[in-house]
Specification:
This protein has 378 residues and is α/β, with parallel strands linked by helices. The protein has 13 helices and twelve strands.
Amino acid sequence: MDIFESMTTQGHEQVVFVSLGDAGLKAIIAIHDTTLGPALGGCRMYPYKTEAEAVADAMRLSRAMTYKAAAAGLHLGGGKSVIIGDPKTDKNEPLFRAFGKAVASLSGRYITAEDVGTDVQDMEFIFSETDYVTGVDTSRGGSGNPSPYTAFGVMQGMMACVARAFGEQSMKGRTVAIQGLGHVGAHLAGLLKKEGATVIATDVDKARAQKVGEEHGLDELVSPDDIFSVPCDVFAPCAMGLAINENTIDKLKCKVVAGGANNQLQSDDFGAELERRNIFYAPDFVINAGGLINVYTELEGYNEERAMRLVRNLYYSVARIFTLAEAHNEPTIFAARRMVRSRIQEVARLQPHFNRFPARAAIHRNHRVPAAAPGRRR
């Protein structure tokens, strides 16, 4: 993998490699674009088979965060970090505190948060070393686990898709197939059951699938390979990325694809193929922005009511993408990217006249003095 060529092709500003042997830390921090503000994106911990695979994931995810923040109208850029390791066996305080020092060294260009394989306790360790972390415990002025908000946002976007496909937004009586019952998938399953939907789901962790199934009264659990061919109204990818690919697209028996996973399409061409098959697709970086919106509100002092109000607006964000796609006679994935690029380009024109990273780059919490934004004095 030619990293510099990939950075140029994908538009990345910076890729940072962190290795602290005493703490067992091997991490990559990818900063994609800071035109709209500091790069905010979660820290993922995963046992990648190769370092190249970890770098590719960090770069792909950070680019998606740029689009997600821009589509949601936030004053944020896109970033992501990955820690190479098994979250079930390799977690410890020194590792995450070392990672916190690495985040602190970037002076606010990157703000971290929870992601796959990390949780609120891990954010607490990072918080010991830097203010540039969101999703810390509510007792410390943070917003806690963002997963419920991501799931709630996905639900709003899903209803917008269903309204488009079937003429009414209610999920009652609809069948939804959920791929992945992690934090987001499990919360989404619970929300759907409360709305009267039939939920069929899967997870690679059979024990977890069984636990979530019993907890929320899911209607059926199937194998990970079988989830794609389940006859349903909505297919919801909520696991790792690239769920819609050359091996799975022919199996789909749904009218809508709307889920919480990042990078759901193997390439944008698959978004066009879904369109050709008359399947309504909610671009992932639009529909799954609820968690990002929630932690974003920490930057100016967390308020749950405000966060929920902003996340609820994802219904209208997804509906707008369908309107734009129809107006330009193009698939929703292209319409969403068009909208994002337009916003970034418009803001970029202002940058020569103003300083980068205003005061909102600092995270304001009542319990401690907020960190100074880059270039700003306390």
